[in-house]
From TrEMBL:
Segments forming domain FAS1: 45-189
Name of protein: Putative surface protein with fasciclin (FAS1) repeats
Signal peptide (UniProt feature, chain positions): 1-17
Annotated SUPFAM superfamilies: FAS1 domain
Keywords, in A-Z order: Signal
Length: 193
């Protein structure tokens, strides 16, 4: 019974979070906040997970990566494309839902939410825009969790529409890392549960 109430509460929280249809203006983060260690010859030396852990506006995402076990995946060879929600993006998710995600018994649920922010392969903003154009204004990517996410353009920004119905805008693109690329987004993307 308690497990059912936990799952029901999480679904209700996700539904409320999914009500936000129009993205908010992104939180400001400077390129200096997001740059990683560059080695000789301009080669990026930091992994995606090391970079995210060092980003000042991604503390909640960092904690979630560690709690879910997904951090180990993003430390691997990849390549990966990661849509990284800011702390402000996580603040849009109801507190009860965020707290439930971080409980040890919800590790698989949290990993599912985070895997929905990861796409296998290295896709720059130029690559994404080209796919959107080739698709007549829309494209679909399959995430590491096996669910699809839709991409389109909103002016000159890339707009992601989650299976859960909510949307996020890429506020900072193309943070190149040794095992992939990070795109900062302004909302937590919600997969189908």
């Amino acid at each position: 019974m308690a497990r059912w109430l936990l799952v029901a509460g999480m679904i209700a929280g996700l539904a409320l979070a999914g009500c936000k249809k129009t993205p908010e203006p992104p939180a400001t983060e400077t390129m200096a906040d997001m740059t990683g260690a560059i080695g000789a010859g301009g080669q990026e030396t930091q992994s995606i997970v090391d970079s995210i852990l060092a980003m000042p506006n991604h503390k909640t995402f960092s904690a979630a990566l560690a709690a879910s076990g997904v951090a180990a995946k993003l430390a691997g060879n990849g390549p990966f494309t990661v849509f990284a929600p800011t702390d402000a993006a996580f603040a849009q998710v109801p507190v009860a839902t965020r707290d439930a995600w971080m409980r040890p018994e919800s590790k698989a649920v949290l990993a599912g939410v985070l895997d929905y922010h990861i796409v296998p392969g290295r896709l720059t903003a130029t690559d994404l825009a080209a796919r959107i154009e080739a698709g007549g204004g829309k494209t679909t990517l399959t995430t590491a969790g096996g669910q699809d996410i839709s991409l389109s353009m909103s002016g000159n920004k890339i707009l992601l529409t989650a299976a859960g119905g909510n949307r996020a805008v890429v506020s900072t693109a193309d943070l190149d890392r040794k095992n992939g690329v990070i795109h900062v987004v302004d909302a937590v993307l919600l997969p189908r549960m």
